[in-house]
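Sat 14:20. Reprocessing the chain from the morning session after the first attempt stalled halfway. Input below, unchanged.
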Amino acid sequence: QVQLVESGGGAVQAGDSLRLSCTSSGLTAGKYDMSWYRQAPGKEREFVATIVSNGINTWYADSVKGRFTISKDDVKNTVYLQMDSLRPEDTANYYCTAAGVWWGQGTQVTVSS
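Finished this time. Tokens:
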């Protein structure tokens, strides 16, 4: 019924950029805070970024501040994560979530040095 699908991951070199997308169905993204999390093998899932439902305020993990930008398009029910200046330590499976209740399946980002 409710589905979140991430896309845009891939394998890149350090310093490159990627834009991740998360498209929701079965819910209206504009009614929920939307977030990105990531999880590397053997590591716990960690917070990356949040955009509040009204789109005005955003929060970022210290590790990505100044490099990543979260945004959304409520008409398209899509949230984005623009990732610039990627580093090997950004390598992880990236997940989007609506209010921490509904989660996507993840999209893999691999950054080589």
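The chain has a mean pLDDT of 96.
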